[in-house]
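Second attempt. The first submission of Cysteine proteinase had a stray character pasted in from the spreadsheet, which I only caught after the job came back as garbage. Lesson logged: always re-copy from the clean sequence file. Corrected sequence (453 aa) follows.
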Amino acid sequence: MVAKRGHGLTCFARLSLFLFGLTLSSAHQTTVQCIARKLKLEDNQLLRTEKRFRVFMGNYGRNYSTREEYLQRLEIFAGNMLRAAENQALDPTAIHGVTQFSDLTEDEFQRHYTGVNGGFPLNNGAGGVAPPLEMDGLPEDFDWREKGAVTEVKMQGKCGSCWAFSTTGSIEGANFIATGKLLNLSEQQLVDCDNQCDITERTTCDNGCNGGLMTNAYKYLLESGGLEEESSYPYTGEKGECKFDPGKVAVRITNFTNIPVDENQIAAYLVKHGPLAIGLNAIFMQTYIGGVSCPLICSKRWLNHGVLLVGYRAKGFSILRLGNKPYWIIKNSWGKRWGVDGYYMLCRGHAICGMNTMVSAAMVAQTQTTTQTAIAWHEDRRKWVGDRSQHPPRIAKDQIISWSTSYEELLSTNEPFAEPIPLPVRFHYLKESNLMHKKCMCSNGCHNVKVYL
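This time the job returned cleanly.
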């Protein structure tokens, strides 16, 4: 009797499980059908899309913890496939389709994989706008990768730190041109330590994985004394405690500047001064696979991603034979599996996606030396003041004499500096309108620095 009861319960349980399974299957079918109706997909389109989604999951190691999450990401993926088709129509010289970001909403993509704060095109920062250069004799094609000035493509991960990668890339190139050495510099130092704010918009501050600006980062580096190498301050992909060690500084910048918006001027500065940090609108980059991107519609008034301009070509590949397009070569920070081995080819000459409106360059001393002291006469305090970083004293006032003296002579007649003076160095000041040129003459290198008064 007991055995029969147990057998009866087992049969009942099996029946219940079977009915429950049918209910789940029906619910799944209904949910997927809802996705199809919402996106206006036919049954065969939905089937093909789900197959592509499963291939995507395998290629990029996606594993969703619940069926609900799977269906949510499937819906996002299906929507992104429709958007990729729209982008293809708007950008026919490029190839758009499945990328590592195909299961992300546009908001998720921008929040975690871009990171330029401020949004609107800027020519911000104390660097000012650089004067125009002569453009005669520029090469038809140019690529700093071929000259050894560009490090390997990096991966920012799920962190809105593109601004840090754009900054280090420009300094890596400038340092290579100045010293002949290609160093891999630390983005993590900027992510952890840089809290600089834009002087024109105090709410636009550098904030680790929550975004920043390249010009803010330059200002931080001028004040902090420089950048460590990646090997001494490695990237983690999240903001942590600042561990910057001034004793490990590998590169010091002496200044930075914004580049004029004219694309021919951008090309001239690229050739003569090295890779340039730029901001652009990355809306077409979420679905970009290859080719030359030249979208018919791409807002120039909202920039959200920082990248590195490394070269240009006179003619580019066109998948639909619409004619060869001159294009920019742009290094991204999403790894080598994205785009053309990690690079973005963007149409040149049309200010596409605002790429010409946030362009900047850093200046690096030809010889990296121990920190020098910038000094100037403070009229109100009647003493020489300064600091040990390679930028002007913030409180310096105008002075009325030209002079030449040594540290020893200076200290014998004036109050001591707040910090010890590292080396006996002779300064020569030359008055010129509202600024002084300081030429620091020392045994281990020379630097020309402008001290604004």
